[in-house]
Amino acid sequence: MKLKWKPKKLTLVIIPDANQSVVRFRVPHLFAYIAAACFSLLLLITLITYALHAQTTKKANALQAKLSGASQQWNATLTSKDKAIEQLQNEVIQLSQQAEQMKSQVEEMKKFENDLKSIAGLDANVTGKAVASATAANENKSTEEQTPPVATSGIGGSPNPASQEAIMQLGEQTSASFTALNSEVKELQTSLTETKQKVADKQHQLAITPTLYPTNVRIVTSTFGYRTDPFTHSPSFHSGIDFGARENDAVYATADGKVVSTGKDIYHGNNIVIEHSKGLRTWYMHLNKILVNNGDNVTKGSTIGLVGSTGRSTAPHLHYEVLKNGESIDPKPYLKANRKDD
Ligand SMILES: [Zn+2]
Asked: Which residue ranges run through the membrane (predicted)?
């Protein structure tokens, strides 16, 4: 069998227009194969390019979506942090306000302590500042009383946002204020403890000092000192004070103490002696009735007997004497207070 290459020709006809003559090209078959191969190659390249492009676009979209998600998350974090910072800043402001309130309260407590000292007669050297502030406070109080404040809860003003630096500074100031307050409160605690002790000492001192009137009646019918004796009409020394009380009026212990003598004799009648401290004794005479026993502990203001006219007496009265180390002294400088429940 013989193979014989016979180049066949293909005729390409191009018709430009109906009125123009037809153009003919005669090309070999091989050209057609090459053209078909070129076309196929081109198509393949196009498809591969398209596939690559599609894959790249898909990756880009995925990346963009991821980026967008991250951005949203970042924005959410930023918003959350902004809110947290704002909250912290507001808390700093609140703390600074609390520090101011605490300062006022500490000042108030200092004033109370000074007032307490004044009432107890403890502080002879109360500072002018304290007195001035107390006076100012009283003045303010009286002004308030004259013109009662109108209750209002309104707050206003133009918006003026605080800068971060200002808040930081406020935070530092507040911290310093709290440190200072802490030390002031400690000082106040020490001072109040001392004052409490001083007041207690003063109270004890007052309790053991015969400052009370021995009867409700405060009419003095005979004072301490020289006088004309009511019986002999001769000059004599009156060693106590006579109170013109009525018969059976209560007689009170003028200070805390211990009954060291109860008895009756022709001069003093029914009489009681109470021993206090610091060498002080009080003596109650001419009683109608004695209501305590020898050795009893009595408190200031307790009823120890009833007014009478026993012994060397012209009419019902109480002869009251104060003795210092066994010697009669004028009771008058001691008498300052009424009975507790008066
Ligand atoms: Zn007398």
From this structure: 30-52
Residue 222 CA, ligand 1 centroid: distance in Å: 7
* Distance in Å, CA 205 to ligand 1 centroid: 27
pLDDT band at 300 (very low <50, low <70, confident <90, very high): very high
Around ion ligand 1, residues with a beta carbon closer than 5 Å are: 242, 319
The rounded Å distance from CA 270 to ligand 1 centre is 13
The per-residue pLDDT for range 174-221, each reduced to its tens digit, is 889 899 999 999 998 998 999 888 888 888 888 889 999 999 999 999
Distance 298 CA to ligand 1 centre (A): 23
pLDDT (tens digit per residue) in 96-120: 889 999 999 999 998 988 888 888 8
Distance 322 CA to ligand 1 centre (A): 12
Task: State pLDDT tens for residues 147-171.
Answer: 445 555 677 777 788 888 888 888 8
Residue 229 scores a pLDDT above 60: yes
CB-based burial, 119-137: b 16+ in 10 Å, e otherwise: ebebeeeeeeebeebbeee
Q: Tell me: the pLDDT tens digits for 285-299?
A: 999 999 999 999 999
Q: Is 233 helix (H, G, I), strand (E, B) or coil?
A: coil
Question: Encoding tokens for residue 171?
Answer: 């935070």
Centroid of ligand 1 to alpha carbon of 172 (angstroms): 74
* Residue 2 DSSP code: -
The beta-carbon contacts of 96-100 under 8 Å, at least 24 apart in sequence, are: 96/170, 96/171, 96/173, 96/174, 96/177, 99/174, 99/177, 99/178, 99/181, 100/177
- β partners of residue 23: 14
Long-range contacts of 131-136 (CB under 8 A, 24+ apart): 133/107
First to last CA, the chain: 159
**296 C-alpha to ligand 1 centroid (Å):** 25
Q: Is 70 helix (H, G, I), strand (E, B) or coil?
A: helix
Cα 295 to middle of ligand 1, angstroms: 25
3-state secondary structure of 260: strand
